[in-house]
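We now fix the convention by which a protein and its fold are recorded. These numbers are not coordinates but entries in a learned vocabulary of local backbone shapes. A record is reproduced here so that you can trace the correspondence yourselves:
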Amino acid sequence: MDGAGASIQALPNEVLIRVVAELAEGGHFGSIAALAQATRRLSTIVNPQLYTPVSRVQLVAAEALIWAAEDDETRVVVALLLLGVSPDTYFYSSIPEIGR
């Protein structure tokens, strides 16, 4: 088998979840997010794996929740809230906001 025509779509869910776990352990969340955007099936499998590690780190989760709310990313806000991120979070940045 030369790999021609091989697709990540052909992998079983369990293998995809393990691939995402390895990417998360390496801190490659951008790659995980890109994978989640590839197809509906991958999004369904990858998104819970993408948001769960974020929800466990409150500072990062707070920043993600605020970013999503400010940018009208309703699906991201809902996903983070369902994972237990507090909506009563306060986040302060010393970096000034430059025109949006």
